[in-house]
Input
Amino acid sequence: MERVHAVVLAAGKGKRMKSDLPKVLHRVSGQALVTYVLETLRAAGVEDPIIVVGHGAEGVRAIGGPRARFVDQVEQRGTGHAVMQALPLLPQQTQQSDPVLVLYGDTPLLTPDTIRALLEQHRSSEAAVTMLTAELSDPTGYGRIIRDGDGRVQRIVEDADASSEEKQVREINAGTYVYDPAALREALKGLVPHNAQGEYYITDTVSWLLSRGRTVSALLGSPEETMGINSRRELAQVEAVMRRRILEGLMDQGVTIIDPLTTYVHAGVVVGRDSVIHPQCHLEGTTRIGSGCVIGPQARLVDSTLLDRVTVVASTVEGSIVGEGTRVGPYSHLRPGTQVGRFVEIGNFAEMKNATVGDYTKVHHQSYLGDATIGERVNIGAGTVTCNYDGKGKYPTVIEDGAFIGSDTMLIAPVRIGKGAVTGAGSVVNKDVPPGALAVGVPARVIKYVTANTER
Output
């Protein structure tokens, strides 16, 4: 069976980005540009691509990981030179008819359907190379694709060399190619660096093949898909397109987006049907949201999981898990490591870090719970603080089921509040409180025992 080999060009620095970061590692909707290209190839059935790396190679290798093979372009001598570096990793003797797909690592909007269509046209046309093109409303600065009366590609004319008639042509080279492998090797051998930079350009392989009477086919793609990125402005333009795609996908799956213009969702975020996303929300990283949830306005969720029917209003949730029917906010902050149970109420200015909160517990106002385990049906009064850090180490606090923590209670960790126990307002608790006990004062002391009530 035919196997498609892919070469992804990702060695360039991207000078116009004015960045120390390799261009292909800049992010769109939360993912590196080259990640989108790798995912598109996988979805199109193209496995084990070769990535040509150069500037910032280690970072690109880390992103690509086991999904790709890598080859170094130590000396940056153009895109044609980059493909030359990949030749040793392509089959030398066997499977010579397998096509070679060459594309750039900064084209995140390219879709699997377009890759498949390009490959199919290459097969049916039996061309030496099939190139992806696009029609631009303003093609100034781009090389034009000149076709004959039957639609066959005759030549590529650079903008500076184009006649006034040729400048009217709006079809341009989009920079994605499928080659017959033998034709690719021949064309690369024939490249000559006739330019001020002394570089070998992959685009010149097309002209070389045409000059020798070889068939060159072209597939007209959408201008949106063929957008590459060479500047921060273009990065922002691609971000806007990707964001629109992501939000339209969610809406098609049954999610209500109140205002797409002010909603930001990373690629890979999952949102269940009948959930509602209000304006000025950011859903980032590996976030997973269940069905029937209400998010926002002004919520930020990062690498978190929300089960069904959760509400998060004007709050930040990072690296946390929130159980069914729980409400968070406004103005709360769940920090990494927090796990919240079902039907919990977390109110204004509550902060949690590395905390576990049981079902039906209430944490309504101005509190900090860090390195804490809180049971079910616990009431945390306003101003409660778990004092978990003594300047050297961090220590745990445990509050058992049904406990009632009075307002302004300071819990000096390590400490345990027993089942059904109560602390008085303003208490400073530095010793364990037994189940069913009432502790008050500074420092707190047990003054009597009360009946444990785990149904509060």
Summary: The domain at 255-449 is CATH 2.160.10.10 (UDP N-Acetylglucosamine Acyltransferase; domain 1). The chain has two domains: 5-221, 255-449. The radius of gyration is 30 Å. The helical segments are 33-43, 57-64, 79-86, 112-125, 181-190, 203-211, 232-252.
